[in-house]
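Researcher: Hi, I'm a grad student and pretty new to this. My advisor asked me to get structures for two proteins we've been looking at. I'm not sure of the right format, so I'll just paste the first sequence and hope you can take it from there.
Model: That works fine. Here's the first sequence with its structure tokens right after it:
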Amino acid sequence: MKKTTSPYRWPAEWEPQSATWIAWPHNLDTWPGHFREIPGSFVKLISAIAAFQPVKVLAGPKDSSPSAQDMLQNVSNVTVYKCLTNDCWIRDYGPTFVHRNLDGKVVGVDWRFNAWGGKYPPYEDDARAAEFICRQLMSARSQSSLYCEGGALETDGEATLLSTSSCLMSRYRNPGWTRDMVEDELKRQLGVTKVIWVDGGGLEGDDTDGHIDQLARFVSPTVVVAATSSDPMDPNRSGLEQNLDILSKKTDAAGRKLTVHALPTPAPRKVDGKRVPESYCNFLFVNGAVLVPTFGSPHTDRAALEILAQLIPDRKIIPVDCRQLIIGLGAVHCATQQEPANRANA
């Protein structure tokens, strides 16, 4: 088989960053009956990130109420951009930033986007956001023909990628694509050389068809945390245990065995009769810290913070209350997209 080559390298999230991008929430349908608390939750999230690095916010429609400008006027280290959006989950439609091997400069990979397999039209403004961001940064943009969301991808920065077939091989995203075709495109755009498919099972209530950033994350080279269930009666339990088993048998792109740590989820919680997909894997690296979602579950919240503190001892572990945010089926990682520093300037 012909080896896929790439001019890029996808840096790990813990590598130096220039900023974090966020899209201001305005879509009432994302949190039906619960939107009132959401802008304030975003202000807290943005403030927590801005204590460590710049935050760049897409303002959304002119009639967004409350507006990003009004709510963020007293938060320092924040820049607001006039850019239309349909929803706030910028991880999935923003560019996936890679480094160009030639000069270390940042390039934005612009995947095709159809709102998680066409679930939530309209999505045309979101689909144009990656181009807008690259234009603001005056960075090159690499357009992909693959329908893909950023939350479906996870890397160690050393050419290993984690993902799920249930998402990228969905017939509502990439009909007609074989696994080899998908892997080749991921390798070409991201510079990875090994793709590990974590196909044990996902989270009940997750509308993404199994985004990896809810299931398994690298915290350092060869070290992975994976969501497991803290409740023996949880419908998620069997699938998550299978994910743990899959990962524990894998090696990375360099042939090193992965070390996998369980990150137990809270007990099942329903809002308005529907399960919300709570997972501590939805954390975010920023310069000097890790922002970790919490869900008002004292035992598992504390355990998750302690596990991540042990595994990432060189950074502050910052809890972020996501009890309201997760009603929209996303948390800290879903609502953000990191902009890595140019390698030449890092």
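Researcher: Oh nice, that was easy. Here's the second one.
Model: And its structure:
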Amino acid sequence: MRTAPLALLLTATLPFTATALEGISFDHKDWILACDNTGTCRAAGYQEENQPRLASLLLERRAGTNTQVQASLKLGEDAEFPTTVELHIGAQALGPIALDYMGMGKPNPAQTRALLTAIKGTAAIELRASDKTWTLSSSGANAVLLKMDEFQRRVGTTSALIRPGKQRGNPLLPQAASVIYAAAVPQAAPRTISPANAEYPQLQRLLGQALQEACFPEKDEPAPSFVVHALSDSRALISTTCWMAAYNHGDIYVLMDSDSRQVLKVLGSDFNDYANGVLSSSHKGRGLGDCWSTKEYVWDGQQFVLSLKQTTGLCRGFPGGAWELPTVVSEVR
């Protein structure tokens, strides 16, 4: 079995068209932030770690002068959620929040303003329904919201959430998402080249160094088969299994000429899916599967271009993660 350290997942990269604005991610204590290349920021807070009842608050704000914070609420772990929860901040009851069948709801503007004030302080934030109570932590919120203000260039201005000032300022304006023109790829089924095929020795020789460096092969492991995906008349994508960890796995992908005689680019070894011109990776942050990181690359006829990069937030018990928190978004045409 091939194994790889988690660091490999974080360092394997592909060339992609640079955007004018680079997204960021940041987390502190019970809060996490992701700002994408359009200038939109999403901050998510959770229940304190190891609390049995799962709750998360998402605060989303687009770039721009007069944009408001939009709030979303999500509860977890119940097979059947209540239809409403009552918001309590300290000793104050602030009315109901309707929930859908997935435990998601939208605080109204007044509740959102109260939540923004509460998470910057120490007042208890509770969501109550019948005999159940969910709590939201404010620990880390100030640092995360300050980072959001810094990214959107609001610090010291009237629109800042933390450290507001009297300046009108020039907050970051919304940026257009990068446009990627996806190239059509042949619909032929991929071709497998096993060790018994006549062309196998040539591929093994061409890819031997990449496999040795990225896949950590073990001596007793059988020689891997290669899978050939046609991209065009002159380009092909070659893949093979590369490594297996406790709860993640990765395949190595290599861009080659259509005759499989020349390696054009080793694309990386953290990918685990390719379909119809889209190369992607998806990895758990831990075995429970409550936090994931995802990347997608689109074939534009010349190279694979990064089209999406996101996580699902902190590892706090939500199956599949609580939210989608991108740092790179694009428009694929």
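Researcher: Is there anything I should tell my advisor about the second?
Model: You could mention this: Confidence is low (pLDDT under 50) at residues 1-19.
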